[in-house]
Amino acid sequence: MIVLADVISSTIVFAVPLLLVAMGGMFSERSGIINIALEGIMIIGALMGCLMMRWLDPLVMNGQLGPQLAMLIATLFAGACGVVFSVLLAFASINLKADQTIGGTALNMLAPALAIVLTWVVQGQGQTTILIPTWSRITEANFGLTLEKGSFIQALLFKNFYLTTILTVVLFAAAVILMYKTKFGLRLRSCGEHPQAAASVGINVFKMRYAGVLISGFLGGIGGLAFTLAAGSGFQSSVAGYGFLALAVMIFGNWKPWSILGASLFFALFKVIGAYASSIPFMPKFKELEGVSSYLWPMLPYIITMILLVLTSKKSRAPKAEGIPYDKGMR
Amino acid sequence: MSEYVIEMLNITKEFPGIKANDNITLQLKKGEVHALLGENGAGKSTLMSVLFGLYQPEAGTIKKDGKVVKINNPNDANALHIGMVHQHFKLVEIFTVLDNIILGAEPNKMGFLQKAEARKKVLELSEKYGLQVDPDAKIEDISVGMQQRVEILKMLYRDNEILIFDEPTAVLTPQEIDELMEIMRNFTKEGKSILFITHKLNEIMAVADRCTVLRKGKYMGTVEIKDTTKEELSRMMVGRDVKFEVDKGEQHLGDVVLDVQNVTVPSKLHSNNAVKDVSFQVRAGEIVCLAGIEGNGQTQFVYALTGLDKMSRGKITLCGHDITKAKIRDRSKLGMSHIPEDRHKHGLVLDFSLEQNMVLQRYWQPEFQKFGFIRNKEVRKYTDRLIEQYDIRSGQGAVTTARSMSGGNQQKAIVAREIDKNPELLVAVQPTRGLDVGAIEYIHKQLVAQRDAGKAVLLVSLELEEVMSVPDRILVMYEGEIVGEFDPKKTTVQELGLYMAGAKNMYRDVEKKGGAEA
Known about the structure:
Chain A has helices spanning 2-30, 38-61, 67-95, 100-123, 152-158, 163-181, 183-193, 195-200, 205-231, 242-252, 257-276, 293-296, 300-312; strands at residues 130-131, 234-235.
């Protein structure tokens, strides 16, 4: 039973960054800009979020600042830095009409290098890990509860519970409403499908595409921090390819929020099953393959991603105008 | 108050290299249908884009009701109640009809869409003007005719008073064209003013009150339609007398060259077939025209015929050889020539020089290569001959890149290459699309010359005038099926229109009758 609780709570905590980042990608791509820089944006978000937590640590430790308020500051800071970083992509692909894939790849190469340099500058040479303070997690104590450690409820609710999880639920709801119920959403989607049509009814395509990319920067930055919180005790200038996995989730989710939610839970589940396989009694153990068996299960989410993308790619329908720089004269 | 609702005075608009509009004046009276006539590239669309705020003119003024106005973007145009139905519809395919109509002018509270009131207004307008649409249908699922109604509703929804129609009839059946004319007349009765861009003289004579003519970016004059004739208008447009008929010699029918049996081609987009069980023959010495509205399977059929795509069922025989599964080069060797629908995609390698393009299908022949090396001198000689013979004009002769040539000359180059192969069957798909009157005349002459020389010609065309004048036989295609066969001398545009719209089917109706008798 305790394994089940672990699997569920870990699935949620790993689905959170996938969902956030894939939604970010969705906003950018539905406005017409391919955002392959999500990985880089996540790294920047995670880096700046972790640094902010580090800076706030003394204040929290001597009680001047509530730990969850500090987390909120760090989270928003991560999002804001993601926005700043994504401006580079927006400028290159919207103003300069650069190839969006190449622009995004450049940012992906820039981000980890920048992260290492900044980490060393702040912590001293050779100190490659920024440790995450223990107060980042929401525990039963925050609600004044005392639960037996290791009980089902405790493991399910409080083993992996962060402010970002709550925030994600709010952001997801907001994203769905923004995309489908508002003037802004309608206009954004029209820019990704047929920017000339949008321009002919007086919509500023440049502005809408900027909005799309910047929103993806915000969500990507927070997603980066959420991943680091979920992944372990510290940030090491990497988000382990989660930005690219989020892209796959977005494609598998057909650029639609509810499908993306389903897809991220699905992938997170396989990731967690991969990690917990050895402790789940009925899962095969591949004993014959001694030496490599420990690598087989962690490969699971990535293999499933590939198979699913192959199977569903025929049905998936990308925004029609994505990747094409907007040109007024084109018909 | 001025007599004119809109005046565009001495407008000049330049693009790098060309003056698209050179000192053009256009004055639109309230409540009139004003036609804007000119060939492709005469500057009609540019002028309208200036009025609509998409381009800024270098010189000239625009007046609304006698007052000078500045139109910097479509929002300004909209504020002046100017609306436009673009030639290429500006509709988002995956949106519903309603979403497309309100886009850019969304009724909202604090940014939240209020679709209920929009729906009410759209339904009222659609009722009032007889523009039937389903507000919840997606654009990609509705017919082109309905898409145009959506575009018109977009203008009405914004309470536009000046309505610009850019080549609105190109995609419609004759019956839909009549309906559109009726709708336009209704608008003018309400005091709306219409600018109607076209190069089709019949439509101008039918619906317009006055007409402004442009030629090569220059203003040729404005005339009252009741005081003019088709011939005079065409002379103003082209600058010389134009013959509307195509001269054809007496027909000498020969053997069957192309035999198509039960060809079925699956659709890429839908689960049904794009081409369904099509059978016909083309004999030497005749031009057969495959007519129909765009998107009824003609393109897919030609792809299967020329080998660009596979068919799922059926058999094609060319001069007695089964070519159902033949490679494109083998088809070419057996005597098939193809003037493709999309000359940029399938006709030319745009960044190659003219001479390289001319030998695309023949570079491997001994005439043009030795031990795998191209014999450049021979290629040059050959190209120079074609340039001379077919009057292909290009900046630097044989070494001009294809991209830099005008559309008409690109097409001439393709025609030269395909005809000079001396084919048994010439497949010409919309060979005159986007060309001016002179080039159209030229291409028609070449097609007829092939026929008179005893070759078989399969022409695929959307232009009714071409369908009526060039071929010896017409086959109408609707939703992937051939629904009728006609002799152009014995049929009318109206009759063809009924078949093109799917209202009639020669073979089905016969079957029904036969069933009743039995």
